[in-house]
From TrEMBL:
InterPro entries: NA-bd_OB-fold (IPR012340), RFA1B/D_OB_1st (IPR003871). Residues 12-116 form the Replication protein A 70 kDa DNA-binding subunit B/D first OB fold domain. This is Replication protein A 70 kDa DNA-binding subunit B/D first OB fold domain-containing protein. It comes from the Eukaryota. SUPFAM superfamilies: Nucleic acid-binding proteins (SSF50249).
Amino acid sequence: MAASYSLTSSIYVNISELEPGRSSFGIKVRVIRCYRQLSSHKADPDGTLELILHDEIGDRIHATIDYGVFKDKKLDIIEGNLYKFMTFMVAHDMSKYRTTTNPFKLRLYNSTSITPFQDNVIGRVFSYQKPTFVAKLSTNRMDFKIANTQGRELGCSLWSEYIDPVLEIFEKDDPRPIIICIQFGKITRIFDEIKVSNTFHVTKVTVNGETGVFKNFLDGYYYLFHNL
């Protein structure tokens, strides 16, 4: 994604597309809550691991896995991180105390594949426009363009509360390149043009970060710059 700015077909679906029965599809989600629930039953002393999952559209669903199975899988699930889930059961949520409004919940098993992943769009900001008010949605939008290390361009938009922290950095008098990383953004195709924007309360936006993603991008950027 970060390198090519292209769209590919996927076996992954949105949470809203899940239906009861064993799923042959997968989901890409952010774990927004993760906690262990102990059991009073002697047959199940370890209890369960409870997860609340959030997809790029903004929908949520509750997921449960036996804690013993979770330990056997030797997973490290961290709140706020992104994961791919494959092979699970979708069932009606009959819980007395519901954590989401979704009528369904997921049951995870030993056969369930849980894989961390990065869904980053990263690039150097080379132009931006001042925020404009979109009356139809009663909120502000800021458009800007980024380029990857091959010079390929991508249009981006940020909405609402995502704008101010980013605009403050854009407007600074700093000679260094501005590198922005948009994680779990909403990617759309308008005719032949691909654009990315934030999904409210799901997308994570980082500017000039210090992680390996930024370091790798800058290494590629400076290599391109010095070999023009």
